[in-house]
Write a structure and sequence with these properties.
Layout lengths: L8 E7 L2 E7 L8 E12 L3 E10 L2 E13 L4 E13 L6 H26 L1
Antiparallel strand pairs: 1-2, 2-3, 3-4, 4-5, 5-6
Length: 122
């Protein structure tokens, strides 16, 4: 996972299906390094899982969860995510639309990186 995360990120395992992710992010006018705890649960290999995260940096915090469902298509995999995010501190001042755009941009960048790596391996 680490090589495909946007920017400079470090991922460390902290237990079974539990990780500590440290990375620089951009949300509105903020560009902090965020340390986030990530927990995977309800893992049904190749089908679905739940991801929970919480992190803080520079007087701002984020907490959220999402259900991720994977569906096999003819020549690809559909990934459907449904979740919620709560912000605190300075992030409360950032419009929800900018937080949503930042999350979508992050996920698009991550999956594009994974897709390129997969294509190179063929």
């Amino acid at each position: 996972m680490e090589p495909y995360l946007p920017g400079t990120a470090k991922v460390a395992s902290t237990g079974a299906d539990s990780y500590r992710v440290s990375m620089k992010i951009s949300v509105g006018f903020l560009r902090p390094t965020v340390n986030t705890n990530v927990q995977l649960s309800e893992v049904n290999e190749l089908e679905s899982f739940v991801i929970e995260l919480s992190g803080k940096s520079m007087g701002a915090g984020v907490k959220g969860n999402a259900e991720v469902v994977l569906s096999a298509l003819e020549d690809s995999t559909r990934i459907q995510m449904t979740g919620t995010v709560e912000t605190s501190g300075l992030l409360k001042k950032v419009p929800e639309s900018k937080i949503e755009a930042a999350a979508i941009g992050f996920l698009e960048s991550y999956f594009a990186s994974v897709e390129k790596a997969f294509a190179r391996s063929l």
